[in-house]
Design a protein that fits this description.
The longest helix has 18 residues. About 40% of the residues lie in helices and about 15% in strands. It is globular and about 65 Å long. Helix 4 packs parallel to helix 5 and helix 8 packs across helix 13. It is an alpha/beta fold and about 425 residues long. Helix 2 links the parallel strand 1 and strand 2. The protein has 2 domains: about 240 residues, 3-Layer(aba) Sandwich (Rossmann fold); about 180 residues, Rossmann fold (3-Layer(aba) Sandwich), CATH 3.40.50. The strands form 2 sheets. It has a 7-stranded parallel sheet with strand order 3-2-1-4-5-6-7, sandwiched between helices.
């Protein structure tokens, strides 16, 4: 590759989470980064520096020529969703007003702004023509917008989740909503390419802002390389026990990741059908309230484990009988989570407690990778547990082919071609 081509394929990638941090926000971006490297892009990655939730195995996906800058995040952990639970006093109103003014769109805004001088220096020194960022956190979008204006580079916004029309943002105050609405319009209308996970989000941005740039749907997906991690792991799953497994985040009282109905339905299922040879495992990030709630159920067949390295999780998924997925109705119905693809490639039946419409529902139904029950219908959930226990969930023999449109090797090639086109314009 000649020098001119190397310069043309340089990309600044601004991310909140990146390997070896194993936060859920890491994986979509890490997978893109891995395949960008294979498409000839040299990446200058600006990200956070973390000391927890580290999985060194993830470093294997980092391109060898990527230059990575890490800046520690020292920010107070403000609870942005607790406004409705605070007493309506003058003092509390003043506190939230100051938070809205100085910490919008999120608490990371000052971390991003402090990073900008280093990014400007790198863009000019390396002659970088294009940058990309992914949100949430949406402070990254503001940083990218400012870099575009200062350095005259092109930039790509990747919407993994909605911004101003997200359910968390809509519970905030008037000033906060005005601030983020101002910034979303600036960022969207000045983008050179926008990527979204869903058709719903793409249509929302087109109808509200009418951006001049192309909006490309790049769904979440899977990387087959990750399924080859390891050959054996110490597993809590016992032989001759029919195991239901949920892996991921779960927190009682959380609006999205609340496993209460899943637990109630399983408890009813085991007692109604006098099930003695089945267990339900939860593995993932949780809190003390959730653990207490599960213990209070007093069902000897329900077990909870803390987060594990991803390669261990995949091996445990391969041994389980049925894999459980759930997303609650506050989540946009078009979202297809990475978890569904990861589950499907393990070639195990999936039962999804979510809603019976949208891209997620159609993906599960049309590709024969599992079945769905309404997350608010306990009786329907109990019936789906029983059907899965009886071995009556139909699954595809070739999920890789069925889900080929969600293979990151394929989707990243589409995105890489669009990026190359932008650089040449």
């Amino acid at each position: 590759m000649n020098k001119e081509k190397q310069e043309n394929l340089k990309l600044l990638y601004l991310l909140m989470y990146y390997a070896p941090c194993s936060h859920t926000g890491t994986f979509r971006n890490l997978r893109f980064s891995k395949y960008f490297g294979k498409h000839g892009f040299q990446q200058f990655i600006f990200t956070g520096k973390y000391n927890t939730n580290i999985n060194l195995k993830l470093n294997e996906s980092i391109p060898t020529d990527a230059i990575i800058y890490r800046k520690k995040i020292n920010i107070a952990q403000f609870k942005w969703t607790n406004r409705q639970n605070i007493k309506n006093t003058l003092c509390s109103k003043l506190v939230f007003l100051l938070k809205d003014i100085f910490f919008s769109p999120d608490k990371y805004i000052w971390w991003v702004l402090a990073y900008i001088p280093k990014m400007i220096w790198t863009i000019r020194k390396e002659k970088i023509k294009l940058l990309m960022t992914s949100g949430p956190c949406f402070s990254l979008f503001i940083g990218a917008y400012l870099l575009k204006k200062i350095c005259k580079v092109k930039f790509i916004l990747d919407y993994r989740d909605p911004w101003t029309n997200g359910w968390i943002q809509q519970t905030q105050g008037f000033i906060y909503q005005k601030i983020i609405s101002f910034w979303e319009r600036r960022c969207v209308c000045n983008s050179d390419l926008i990527t979204t996970c869903t058709t719903e989000m793409r249509e929302y941005l087109q109808e509200k802002y009418h951006p001049k740039c192309k909006i490309l749907k790049i769904p979440n997906g899977f990387d087959l390389d990750e399924l080859d991690w390891g050959t054996s792991v110490k597993t809590p799953i016992k032989d001759n026990i029919f195991t239901f497994l949920y892996t991921g985040k779960f927190n009682i009282f959380d609006k999205i990741y609340n496993p209460e109905n899943m637990l109630k339905a399983y408890d009813i299922f085991t007692r109604k059908y006098d099930i003695k040879d089945s267990e339900l495992f939860f593995i993932g990030a949780s809190n003390s309230e959730t653990k207490k709630y599960i213990n209070d159920i007093n069902n000897q067949y329900v077990h909870i484990f803390d987060s594990m390295p991803k390669q261990d999780i995949i091996q445990i998924q391969k041994k389980a009988n049925v894999l459980i997925h759930f997303f609650y109705p506050v989540t946009p119905k078009e979202i297809v989570s990475l978890k569904i693809c990861e589950y499907a490639i393990c070639k195990k039946p999936i039962i999804s407690f979510s809603i019976k419409e949208g891209d997620l529902y159609n993906l599960i139904k049309n590709n024969h990778i599992g079945e769905t029950a309404d997350t608010h219908n306990i009786e329907e959930m109990v019936s789906l547990y029983h059907k899965a226990y009886q071995g009556k969930i139909e699954i595809s023999d070739n999920p890789e082919e069925q889900l080929s449109d969600y293979n990151v090797e394929y989707t990243s090639s589409i995105l890489a071609n669009e990026i190359a086109r932008l650089i040449k314009e």
